[in-house]
Amino acid sequence: MGETLGEAIAFLEANYPDEVIRVTREVDPVFEVTGILAKLERQQQFPCVIFENVKGSSIPLVTNMHASFPRLAMAIGLPYDATPADFIHEYGRREANPLPPVEVESGPCQEVVLTGEDVDVTMLPILQYHELDAGRYITLAFDVMKEPDSGIRNAGIYRLQLKGRNRFGIQISETAHGHYILKKNKSRGLPTQMAAVIGGHPAMNIGNLSFTSIDTDEFSIAGSMLGKPVELVKCKTIDVEVPASSEIVLECEIHPTEMEEEAPFGEYPGTYGPMRVNPVVYVKAITMRKNALYQSSFVGHADNLLLSGVTRNSYIYHTCRIASAGVKAVYVPPCGRSRYICYIQMERSMIDGDAKNAAMAAFAADPFLKFVICVDDDVDISNDSDVMHAIATRVRADRDVFMITHSRGSPLDPASYDPAGGSHLVTKVGVDATRKSDYPAEIMVPGTDAIDLTRYFGDRFR
Ligand SMILES: Cc1cc2nc3c(=O)[nH]c(=O)nc-3n(C[C@H](O)[C@H](O)[C@H](O)COP(=O)(O)O)c2cc1C
Ligand SMILES: [Mn+2]
Question: How far apart are CA 196 and CA 216, in angstroms?
């Protein structure tokens, strides 16, 4: 799929034309674009949509790139029809083989450089998404900073609320490395230099979202997802490096003390995140390609859910495998908003209690998980209905379900102990839905596999 956002789009248009739709009609960045995407979603349609004419901007807007699983699979070199299991395997393999980035002298992301009075982020097609959102937001910028002591780069997506020609509000969760970096700089009275990088290849984006330690430069995982080291250029006004092939870069400083109200904002669970008093970001320079593309993610919808959903499985799998050799596969399904539910497929347990241990390992790996369900290896964990069948028939709750109250979860969980206050305290449920040793024999008709239906019905059921 190429190496840049533009190349990914060109690849899809040439080989899978149904995957990309261009809209030339003028659209309003306030609710019209997201209304169109929401309407498509109701019809279960998730193409990448490029809005070429967004009111108030001359820059095309790319949406929904990550909203369908086949596009994410192809981004890391898999075929269109790859399964979730194929994806988890390939993603994990690439994650385990990082490719450190390399620095280059110049790059297309600096073809245009705007500083001083020329800085005006309102030229970008920045969207307003949901009814009660506090304003217009950049939702798909990788915000790159450096850990002040180690100097190691860090990349994460933290939303930016438009507040003026050169000002944003920012929300960085307590769980993000970005928060740790910001806090360290603040305690020293220093601003935090941050580059907001917009417009990257989908492999770059899913690599940047890999679950890593703060000692890992996410671009080294992005490189292995792309199959080639990421080339970085130095920013013009701050001491941060950014991918040379990016579309648009906002060179910023987070003020060390200035705080303002930010949000509410429609969040991934499908509910609003509460207003908070959050840091203020100043933009010192805008650099971009001559024919730059702007990219957005529809938070709370498939693009956002899949993007940081597909990246969690490999880490959970790895941790569960350490806990139990019987774990064969894991899957965080879209029905749990790609965050809250995890299915674990296990070999028919040889050690009693192993399923519950595997579930506890999954909870330890990913704090966002609320329900972990372990099933036998004849259950297809990419099929929710198969998993529900196992729960329906193989679970006796008093024996097979355990619950942990007051444990750390997502501060956006709408069912936490205090959703309005943004509590991260939630209750977790583990379910052992494997067959137990006293499970009765299951019905089956001998010889079914060998039956050739064409002998009885011709081609009718072929
Ligand atoms: C579309 C999208 C939007 C996101 N918005 C935010 C956000 O506003 N604040 C935040 O803290 N995390 C957000 N995240 C999640 C973080 O980007 C993610 O946890 C990242 O790995 C954090 O990186 P870090 O721990 O290196 O700082 C978002 C993720 C996606 C896919
Ligand atoms: Mn990080």
Answer: 19
